[in-house]
Amino acid sequence: MSTTFTPEVLNRYTATQPTFGEPYLRVGLDTGGIAAGARLVYQYFDDESEKLDRMPPVSRVGSNGLSWADPIVEVNVANMPPTLYGAVDVDVAKRILDEHILGGRLVDDHMLTYPDTAQARAALLKPNDLRFILVKDTSCEDNDRTEFFQFTLQEELKRRKLAERVQVVRALDVGVYDEGVVVRVFPAGITYSNVLTDQVAQIVERSVEHDDVIENLRYDAPVLQERVVMRNCGIIDPEDLDDYVSHGGYQGLNRALAGSPQACIAEIKESGLRGRGGAGFPTWLKWDLTRKVAADVKYVICNADEGDPGAFMDRSVLEGDPHAVLEGLMLAAYSIGASMGYFYIRAEYPMAIERIQKAIVAARQAGLLGKDILGRGFSFDAKVRLGAGAFVCGEETALIASIEGKRGSPSPRPPYPSVSGLWGKPTSINNVETLAAASAVLAKGGAWYAGIGTKESTGTKVFAVTGKIRNAQLVEVPMGTKLRDIVFKICGGMHDRNDIKAIQTGGPSGGVIPEKLLDTGVSYEALKALGSIMGSGGMLVMDQTDCMVDVAKFYLKFCVDESCGKCAPCRVGGYQLLQLLEKIARGSGKPADVAMLRRICVAMQKASLCGLGQTAPNPVLSTLKYFENEYNAYIEGGHPYARKMKKARAAGPITATVAATA
């Protein structure tokens, strides 16, 4: 990397931003992709690129969010639409090379296409290019009906002498669910749902031969996702600074340095951006409070200590677009007057650590870190510090103590870090997602970002949706998107077709939300009103086989294990709650135990030193609020497990012990 960036060079790079028409082959080399075998796939394509002139340039990218379909490969070659393939192993990679790149034909059973990208892909096809029809039975996992409709469409194309220039492809996923057989026609970009056999001829005649639309069959799939934080994930090479800059990178910094720190804060204020780490504190206010404190040295910290079970939002952003987070950290530093920043990343994220370190080195070599950045008089540098996996170190004061080399335990506030933080100096701490969004806000403007989401909760939110879900993945949706739409329209609904029971947001600090309330729009205010929180973005989906007492017990045990033990309300209260939950789950509970649970929860919320203890009772309180009948079933002996335990105890201590471990 030999380029030294100036404002003029940045503008020139962005002006020559690559278009979708240029050939490329991208392999998702994030942690999830590599675990699924992406490194072998990348190596195969890289080896073949040295042998074949027709191979498009091969690059590594981060996760595009579709974790359930790893490894992911995206291909763009002449006369073909940009194509996303999922579940690619080396054998499938060979088919992609032979059939797609060399043969000009799409590969069956691995293509992914979504409503928000269908029109963009279709627009790139020229009139004389090969045409395509995608087909997928979305009502079940059985592939037989998909194959039958593929055959029926092929026969109709043969009858009309169109088979040579129209390919019918079985898709792995089309982003539409429970709509029967779905047919998508390119280049028209038309989607039909609930297609029946006797409608095949009409589709071929109207939409293939004449580019017409059959309105009574058309399915207008809503565009539910909007990429801001994940705008470059799955698109750019995270280890290539030039690639980031050519996609508009560091334009936010360029724009901010041309004005004052106050103007930068004003832009963030206009955007309405709030901290995405969980509390939702206004980002502009945090920066402004720190800026106003007089000090000879100030610091900024990126909190990447992602500790919620099942969460992988921050890891994916760091792995897929590290420069966006680094740029956001620099914007925070410029706004408050800091000259040094730290990335606090948990040591269990080796790839995220490696890519952030490479981003820092590359930016420093290019003149984007160090002294007099972009010739504007701003000097700043950054370092990486590793966390040892303690959940409590996600709390600001515990994180600061850890960076200082002390035991990671919280301290009383005030003073807040904005007044006395790292080494006693004013410090601004922001989450990964907040910083990645900030770099987009400064590039595109606060008004643009404020136009997304709701009035109180602007912008987008990234969620890691896991649990009893068909397609576990990262989603990024505008604030206000319904929880039900995230589960059923984006993630495909429930695994094994079981009925949904509840979802849990906010990780160990969050609460459960029952099925009847899933039409609630995502926002800080709405989730709080339901007894949950936004948190950093974990979303666990549960079905009717899940026991809410067990859910509360699981999250509470996690908090008890992770408590630093410094304050009695958390240390003692959490242990007492756990003992009561285990007593109830054994079938030994009494009605008075439920009242005791509530009293201890309130005490912990009011008296705990930090956010861990204050929010640890949330899963207990929310399950009591919506599913108290399950607690009562254990207490009254109506729960199957409780009946089993009572029978075992009546038979004697040995039988009871065996039953308890069964």
From TrEMBL:
Record family assignment: Belongs to the complex I 51 kDa subunit family.
Alphabetical UniProt keywords: 4Fe-4S, Iron, Iron-sulfur, Metal-binding
Gene3D superfamilies: 3.10.20.600, 6.10.250.1450, Glutaredoxin, NADH-ubiquinone oxidoreductase 51kDa subunit, NADH-ubiquinone oxidoreductase 51kDa subunit, iron-sulphur binding domain
One Pfam family here: NADH_4Fe-4S
InterPro entries with a match to the protein in the record: NADH-UbQ_OxRdtase_51kDa_CS, Nuo51_FMN-bd, Nuo51_FMN-bd_sf, Nuop51_4Fe4S-bd, Nuop51_4Fe4S-bd_sf, Thioredoxin-like_sf
Chain ranges of the NADH-ubiquinone oxidoreductase 51kDa subunit iron-sulphur binding domain: 549-594
Keyword Iron in record: yes
MF term (GO), any: 4 iron, 4 sulfur cluster binding
Name by which UniProt lists this protein: NADH-ubiquinone oxidoreductase-F iron-sulfur binding region domain-containing protein
